[in-house]
Amino acid sequence: MRVFLLIVFFMSPIALAENVLRSSVSPEFTHGLHVKYLQYMADKLSMKLDIYPMPFARRISALRQGQIDLMVGMQRENSLQDDVIYLQPHYEELQHTFFVLKTQQSSINSFEDLQDKTIGVTIHAKYYHQFNSQTDLALVAVSSLKQKIELLQKGRIDTFIHYKESTLPTLEKMGLSDKIVIANYQPTESHPYFATITTKSRLFERKDEVEKIIQQGVANGDFKRIRQLHYQDTP
User: Fold this and answer.
1) CA atoms within 13 A on the CB side of 105
2) Which SUPFAM superfamilies match (predicted)?
């Protein structure tokens, strides 16, 4: 897998002829979980993976213009089909979960209990509808799960919201499973995440093949295994 920090989208015919899967992730996560999902799919397609780090808006634009071939981590917000093709099935489904200190486990028993709490969130992240539409919540935005955990330990926040599927193994690895626990109140919504292409993608002609890879990966538990190993290995 190659990571290109300087992006040039004019490619020679020779470069375009390479058996290369072009994709993109956030510049902050060039060795993150999404790269591992992409590498898995590139391996299954017998392609070399090239990563062009870009902010989210630029990634979407590059995908629509055919400058990258595939994106992961895409959440479909409505049923309308635009030029982005959401490959079926979704490769994972995650649930946002509130965590608190074990000594405060019963401090959040309903959504209303969040009103007087300071809540750790991820910068620019969207959560569930009721939470997103509540404009008077006291939020502290950070860039990583580790920062949320540290703020909670220091008493700088009362709770944080993050994916259960990544938080639980992280807490276990940090030896904090008996100190930081799931709050009594939890949202009921879960969020499916998709890999996406467009008609301009060089993978468009292989759409059925890519969807079969995703389907088999879900059935075999490959994506869950990649996630678990990622959080076990992450410092």
Assistant:
1) 9
2) Periplasmic binding protein-like II
